[in-house]
Design brief:
The protein is of the alpha/beta class. The protein has 16 helices and 8 strands. Helix 6 crosses helix 8. The C terminus is likely disordered. InterPro entries: HARBI1_dom.
């Protein structure tokens, strides 16, 4: 349970967020009320400064050996041995250095643990700082740097491409050169303030405010690539027009002659294949009916992410515009 000082600190931060609401300040500027807008901004920054002075960081050093396996399962969803193995499998360095002005550094294992702890449950950085002995801003920088090291690492899948293709074929897929499946996913968010912002992220198909992502999932259930987010109102074709994944794979000889399977919107290129259209031959009909059955790994991976990592499915924490605006004001 949070202490009174923690509650006071969170109240100060909430008040500062309201005062630094960029949409509100912009409306005041448009109506010519410059003095009031300036006063609100200064009051918000003053509250943030007061909140930072009231908060103290405990002098603790992270050591994974201080936690039991049960605690690790609660915090990170993994045991000691699994955490060390995951660091090796991901190829994380022994030391992670952030690109922020503070040049924060930590061990690769600590960076992985901070990232997993943040994802496992809807935690605040303020709460995690008492466990890791670091300022919330440092924890955020470490997590962002760790995510950047993991993002789009082609080496994680390139050594197993033919193994993936064989697994899909053995499972009943009639295409023997497909190594992964691509699809879009819609994740709900808080309803943003302002009619224009609400329309831009509202997804009519799911009937909720959301962001869209594009993922590539391998047969072992791992999400190999994630692109996004884009506004929830956008059609999936917007994700397809982004050439990032296709260009990276085309430039890597290890992926030559192998394909990613998606729905008909992805078409048939040197990177993607999709179901046949039009008048089908018997062989094409068999292929079209066999691939959706093995493609269920995509849906399984999404469900596993939500089950194990509740932090990514907590809509109240996904205040997209508010978080971005507050970060701009406090830089």
């Amino acid at each position: 349970m949070a202490s009174d000082s923690d509650e006071d600190l969170l109240s100060l931060r909430r008040a500062a967020r309201e005062m630094l609401d960029m949409a509100r300040l912009k409306r005041l500027h448009l109506h010519g009320d410059w003095e009031r807008a300036s006063r609100l901004r200064l009051q918000g920054l003053s509250l943030l400064y007061d909140a930072s002075r009231r908060f103290s960081i405990p002098r603790v050093r992270f050591d994974i050996e201080d936690f039991t396996d049960d605690t690790c399962l609660t915090f990170y969803r993994l045991t000691h041995a699994q955490l060390h193995r995951l660091q090796d499998c991901f190829g994380l360095p022994d030391v992670i250095r952030t690109g922020s002005h503070s040049r924060t550094c930590c061990s690769g294992l600590e960076g992985l643990c901070i990232t997993l702890h943040r994802l496992s449950y809807p935690n605040r950085w303020l709460e995690l700082s008492r466990i890791y002995g670091r300022w919330p801003s440092a924890l955020r920088s470490i997590s962002e740097r760790c995510n950047a090291l993991l993002e789009g690492n082609l080496d994680l899948a390139s050594s197993r491409l033919h193994e993936f293709a064989q697994a899909i074929y053995d499972q009943g897929g009639e295409l023997d050169r497909v190594w992964g499946f691509v699809d879009g996913i819609v994740r709900g968010i808080c309803r943003p303030a302002g009619a224009h912002a609400q329309r831009s992220v509202y997804n009519g198909h799911k009937r909720k405010h959301a962001l869209k992502f594009q993922t590539v999932v391998t047969p072992d259930g791992m999400i190999f690539h994630l692109f996004g987010p884009v506004e929830g109102c956008r059609h999936d074709i917007v994700l397809l027009r982004k050439p990032e994944l296709g260009n990276r794979i085309r430039g890597d000889e290890r992926f030559r002659g192998l394909f990613i399977y998606g729905d008909q919107a992805y078409g048939r290129t040197d990177v993607f294949v999709s179901p046949f259209k039009g008048a089908l031959t018997p062989a094409q009909a068999v292929i079209n009916s066999s691939m959706p059955e093995v493609r269920t790994t995509v849906e399984w991976s999404y469900g596993q992410v939500v089950n194990y990592w509740g932090g990514v499915d907590f809509k109240r924490k996904k205040c997209v515009l508010v978080e971005f605006q507050l970060r701009r004001c406090t830089r």
